[in-house]
Write a structure and sequence with these properties.
peroxiredoxin activity
Amino acid sequence: MKQRLLFLMSLFVLMTVGGAAFAAAPAEDKVLSPRQESIVVISAFAAQGDLESLKTALADGLNNGLTVNEEKELLVQLYAYAGFPRSLNGLNTLMTVLEERKARGITDTMGPDADPVDPNRDRHAIGDANQTKLVGHPVKGNVYEFCPTISDFLKEHLFGDIFERTVLMWNERELATVSMLAGIGNVNAQLASHMNVAMHNGVTGDQLKAMAKLLGQRVGKAAGDNAMTVAKRVLGE
């Protein structure tokens, strides 16, 4: 009887410790922080122009610690990939979200503004340096030889203006870019390229796969499946 009691007590201890260990184990889905998850979902819905879903995602992002200026920055960056209409509609949606939250007594954190820049700076030189640092090497290609103007626009504006701005870190901007491209669809060459750039700037392969999985759960199965296929190809899996 005594031995049986000792056995039951030992079993109880093992179950308790095991249960605690199981509860403490990180979930696979938490490879991305709540903040990063919000960046992914906001970026994808904004790129698709799904404003009702974007409205929810923006509110969730504010609840997950994104500041108003960080969400504005995501929607400003969006226009370089999805155009001014998507960007402007996203910003108008954010204004609506903030007005509704204010009416409910919610005070959202504005966060720091972007640092000022010298209007007389050499934007082409800055953009060229930023692009090279982001990618890890100078960017060349037949398309840039065929149309040098697009290379100038990329350097001077996307990398010289947008990626020169503060508020968001480069790895966050690349996570947003990958999510925007995944949301748009039919741009797998650029999606694969930016996944590589994202990893060069600190985004891990596991985070890319977690992003694809999250897109499939929140944004759409087709977008998620495609992003996962591209991510695995980039990772050599």
